[in-house]
Amino acid sequence: MIELETTTPFFQDKQEVVDEILSRYPEEGRRSALMPLLWEVQRAERYISEARMHEIAEIVGITATEVKGVLSFYSTYHEQPVGRYHIQICSTLSCALAGADEMYDHLVNELGIVNGETDAEGRFSLQKAECVGSCGTAPVLLVNDTYYERVTKSRCRHLLEALRRDEMPEPWRERGGDNEGAEKATPFGGAEGGEA
Ligand code: FES
């Protein structure tokens, strides 16, 4: 409760943002603004605290418990702080068949954290996710809300190297291949297994 009394409201100086979001929906559909409001907070703070839940509940005219219910339904929203780069690995069937388990093991080894953890530096967090809707380009991982598809070992390595430099690489343009060269295009879970 102390948090609720002392935290400066997130939207205090963002009335224009609130108005724009609310204007997308009719008055009777005000609660539809919940998702974009949650997203505004998460994008800025990387998670949604109890105080923010109460604030958003008040804006859309529902209870904080209802906000929390929505929040816990969607794995894209976080109730606890996550790393600056929140990596979600799709672990559902198409991605599993394309090597998602091996990709997860690779990331665990590289980052020293497991599913649900954040590293000590607060840079990386790791989370297994259900289907993220891009099954045709498996295996897929997300960094925050950016999709990286057809992830090979070399792509994964380059992605981590860039993130360690605090560079967020553009998602690769070639959806069907690895332009690092055939010898580096080793897939996760593939029989070739040539690249560490
Ligand atoms: S199974 Fe991974 S995106 Fe659908």
In short:
The protein has 196 residues and is of the alpha+beta class.
Helix content estimate: 25-40%
Bound molecules: FE2/S2 (inorganic) cluster
Mean pLDDT: 87
Helices and strands: which structural class?
A: alpha+beta
Please compute the radius of gyration using only Cα atoms.
Answer: 19 Å
The main β sheet shows up as:
4 strands, mixed
Please report which band the strand proportion falls in: under 5%, 5-15%, 15-25%, 25-35%, 35-45% or over 45%.
5-15%
What is the count of helical runs?
8
CATH class of the largest domain: Alpha Beta
The CATH superfamily of the largest domain turns out to be Glutaredoxin
Termini Cα gap: 49 Å
Sequence of strands across the biggest β-sheet: 2-1-3-4
Overall shape: elongated
Order of H and E elements: HHHHHEHHEEEH
Give me the count of strands.
4
Please tell me the total number of domains: 2
Provide the low-confidence segments as ranges. Answer: 191-196
Task: Tell me what the CATH architecture of the largest domain is.
Answer: 3-Layer(aba) Sandwich
